[in-house]
Amino acid sequence: MIVQTHRLIGEYLYDVMQKDRSLSIKLSRRRFVYGNVLPDIVSDYKKYSHYYHKNHNYVFGLLKKLVTEPYSDDKFSEDLGILMHFFADYTCVYHACEYLSQEVSISSHIKYEAKFHFYAMRELKSKPLPKALLPFNSLDDIEYYVDKLTKRHNVAPYIVSVADDFRDLLELTTSTLYYILREREKRQI
């Protein structure tokens, strides 16, 4: 996904969380949106692959840390944005499918990301919400879901669908955000 798409998604997710009065944890908009683009613009994060099969240990370690460890508000907002960046990438067939990440030309990947960006711009104007939040009850539930999602992308013949990837993105990121914020509230971190 291109940087501008990650920025749009970060702004959308922030707005969704801020409108929910049931959440007591407030995020720094600037740091959360910055976290959503950081892996594409800062060299320290560029060392991490954006492909599920190459970086899932790092990403799920970050997820666990976000749920269980104390943070300053700014650092929590930024790291949460970083996690959303990688989860957004995982919903894109080109980042989830091992075959595509190795065999398809970079130009096909870039064309898909441009198409995805324009689709996301149009869809996010209406401020959609996922039809339902995914019922995550544990970190294992999230990891299982993401693993299943990426395995679906690895079935031949692969299907490239901007609409499906966008729907998966909204479901995964929104559901994971709610899970993390509610878990931190329960644990009073």
What does the secondary structure layout of this molecule look like, with pairings?
Elements: H1 3-19, H2 29-41, H3 43-46, H4 52-68, H5 73-90, H6 93-96, H7 98-103, H8 106-124, H9 139-153, H10 162-187
Radius of gyration: 16 Å
Give the strand tally: 0
Q: List the domain count as a whole number.
A: 1
* The CATH fourth-level homologous superfamily: P1 Nuclease
Could you tell me the mean pLDDT?
87
General form:
globular
Distance between the termini: 32 Å
Any idea of the CATH topology? P1 Nuclease
Q: What fraction strand? A: under 5%
Helical content band = over 70%
CATH architecture: Orthogonal Bundle
Structural class: mainly alpha
Q: Give a short account of the largest sheet.
A: none
Number of helices: 10
List unreliable stretches of 5+ residues. Answer: none
In sequence order, what are the helices and strands, one letter per element?
HHHHHHHHHH
Indicate the CATH class: Mainly Alpha
